[in-house]
Design goal:
The chain contains five helices and six strands. The chain is an alpha+beta fold. Helix 1 packs antiparallel against helix 2.
Length: 157
């Protein structure tokens, strides 16, 4: 199943509504507090459990800080004609600079690979004020969390 940006907002609103309904029924029907806390804890985690959807939102908003929170200790960056392996801090600065110079308007997933439990790969179409870019992100599972090992940004043909 492929989820696009519009669906992300709907999903977050949906889970917010469920949480409000749970609180209402807790007060109205005296639902056990432990059950309420458990349900309120589970629903937000379900809403943001997909790293690719999160990255779509971060790309769309140009949020390099949130993207860098998912970097591995070193990241291979290929941005237009520049290619190198950078530390997490260096990669964040370079990505922030790119997103500052090319302010994002929209981002959407055009392809994703999530059949391997240890690897994620996604291709995004990033529309900016200065043109459209094909962005690919590779992630590897490290101790139960997917970390970005490579970002490639090139002109969309």
């Amino acid at each position: 199943m492929q989820i696009y940006n519009a669906d992300l907002y709907w999903i977050n609103d949906f889970f917010d509504g469920i949480i409000l309904a749970l609180i209402y029924y807790h007060m109205k029907l005296n639902m056990p507090t432990g059950l309420l806390v458990l349900l309120i804890t589970i629903f937000p985690a379900m809403a943001s459990a997909d790293i690719v959807n999160d990255l779509t939102l971060y790309l769309k908003t140009g949020n390099s800080k949130e993207i860098s929170n998912h970097f591995s200790s070193t990241v291979e960056l290929i941005i237009l004609s520049e290619e190198d392996v950078y530390s997490k801090a260096q990669a964040e600065i370079i990505l922030k600079d790119f997103l500052f110079k090319h302010k994002p308007l929209t981002a959407k997933v055009v392809h994703r690979l999530d059949s391997n439990p240890n690897y994620r790969f996604a291709v995004f179409e990033l529309e900016t004020e200065n043109g459209n870019f094909r962005t690919t992100i590779s992630l590897k599972d490290v101790a139960g969390s997917f970390l970005i090992t490579e970002i490639r940004i090139e002109f969309n043909k």
